[in-house]
Design brief:
Shape: rod-shaped
GO biological process, one term: methylation
Strand content: under 5%
Distance between the termini: 47 Å
Protein name: Putative adenine specific DNA methyltransferase
Helix content: 40-55%
Keywords: Methyltransferase, Transferase
GO molecular function: methyltransferase activity
Number of helices: 2
Structural class: mainly alpha
Largest sheet: none
Radius of gyration: 28 Å
Number of strands: 0
Length: about 70
C-alpha cells in the first residue's frame, strides 16, 4: 500500500511540473568548408577598387547564405 501511495505522490508531483510541452529553436554551429576569397588590392583606381570590392562583398554574402541555409524539417 505504501508503494502505491508513493507512486501516486511521485506521479502527481511530476505531472504538475509539465503543463505543456515547450519547444525552443537551438542553433548549432556547423563547419562550412568554403575558402575565403582574396580581398581586392587597394592600389587600384577608385572606381576599379569599388567595383572589385562590391564583387568581393557579394561573393562573401553568397558564401554565407550557402553556409547558413536551413534544411527543411522532415
Amino acid at each position: 500500500m505504501k508503494l502505491y501511495f508513493l507512486a501516486l505522490c511521485v506521479s502527481v508531483i511530476f505531472n504538475a511540473c509539465a503543463k505543456k510541452v515547450v519547444y525552443h529553436e537551438i542553433k548549432v554551429p556547423v563547419k562550412c568548408d568554403i575558402e575565403m576569397p582574396t580581398r581586392p588590392s587597394e592600389h587600384l583606381e577608385a572606381l576599379e577598387y569599388l567595383k572589385a570590392l562590391l564583387i568581393y562583398t557579394e561573393t562573401l554574402e553568397n558564401d554565407l547564405k550557402f553556409c547558413t541555409k536551413t534544411k527543411p524539417n522532415p
